[in-house]
Design brief:
Layout (H helix, E strand, L loop, with lengths): L1 H19 L3 E3 L4 E3 L13 E6 L4 H8 L8 E3 L5 E2 L2 E2 L2 E2 L14 E2 L2 E2 L5 E6 L4 E6 L2 E6 L4 H18 L6 E3 H4 L13 H6 L8 H8 L10 H11 L9 H15 L10 H14 L2
Parallel strand pairs: 3-10, 3-13, 4-10
Antiparallel strand pairs: 1-2, 4-7, 5-6, 8-9, 11-12
Helix pairs in contact: 6-9, 7-8, 7-9
Length: 280
């Protein structure tokens, strides 16, 4: 009898402690002790991926709510107002996986659908237009109202999941062989000033440029080594065209004034400055 009484007393003391212990959570028919957290655990969401839809809003919404692809958010080019505030569309809860990244790679991780939040921006993307003797891609600019609401949403997501600046990415960064979005007209530098994403310090770019002509050619292999260290997928046996697409993706993000995929001194200096600032 004394043993039973002692056990009941211990249980009562334990439950009394539970009542005042915020780390022991009551879930109705049972309680969960969360005081002993395993160190070998990582957050599911570690990156934010920005896309454009390459279509109008109605067709984009239909595609993103169809059976093949999805994204967490869709932001119209001109968000409508409701009671004085812009409206955006959440298509997938953030805690669920959305199929927006596809075959992807960043900093050693593949299948970024599992570790990211995806935001789609209504934007027609690019079209081919005549230029000289050939054709070039002409990208569509983004609307100021669209970027304004994106800025607020992106900052909230970054704060919610403690996403590092170097993990706020273009779709082209994680899939340069397949994708161009959100393209060279997306205002990465503007967003970086708002605490969204990475951007090199100009003084450090000039330091790494070391007085060279910014357009002076550099060894593409040396540049690709830097881009691989920063996070891009660079693999043995890539064709010159595949290598050029990796360089182009980097330039569209960090040197959008010229994104021809040519390895030059300025691109190399930007890569050095980013590695110095954000690690590798």
């Amino acid at each position: 009898m004394k043993g039973i009484q002692r056990a009941l007393l211990c249980a009562a003391l334990f439950l009394a402690g539970c009542a005042s212990q915020p780390d022991i959570i009551d879930r109705g028919s049972y309680r969960v002790d969360t005081r002993h957290q395993a160190p070998s655990a990582f957050p599911r969401i570690t990156s934010l991926i920005i896309h454009y839809t390459a279509g109008d809003f109605d067709s984009s919404l239909a595609t993103l709510t169809g059976p093949d692809v999805s994204a967490h958010y869709l932001i119209p080019a001109r968000p409508p107002g409701y009671r004085g505030k812009p409206v955006i569309w959440q298509l997938v809860p953030e805690e669920k996986l959305a199929w927006h990244a596809g075959v992807s790679y960043w900093r050693g991780y593949t299948h970024l659908n599992s570790t990211s939040v995806g935001i789609e921006l209504e934007n027609s993307g690019w079209r081919q237009v005549p230029a000289g003797l050939g054709m070039v891609k002409r990208f569509e600019p983004f609307e100021a109202r669209q970027i304004a609401v994106l800025t607020t949403l992106a900052r909230e997501i970054i704060d919610r999941y403690h996403i590092a600046p170097q993990n706020v990415l273009a779709h082209a960064d994680i899939a340069p062989q397949r994708k161009d979005d959100p393209g060279p007209l997306f205002p990465w530098q503007q967003l970086a000033r708002q605490g969204i994403g990475a951007w090199p310090d100009e003084a450090r770019v000039q330091f790494w440029l070391r007085g060279r002509d910014p357009q002076a050619p550099v060894d593409p292999q040396q540049l690709l080594v830097l881009l691989a260290r920063y996070g891009y997928q660079v693999t043995p046996g890539m064709t010159p065209e595949q290598q050029q697409r990796v360089i182009t993706a980097f330039q569209m993000h960090f040197r959008p004034a010229r994104y021809d995929g040519v390895a030059d001194a300025q691109t190399q200096a930007i890569a050095e400055a980013l590695l110095e600032k954000y690690g590798q």
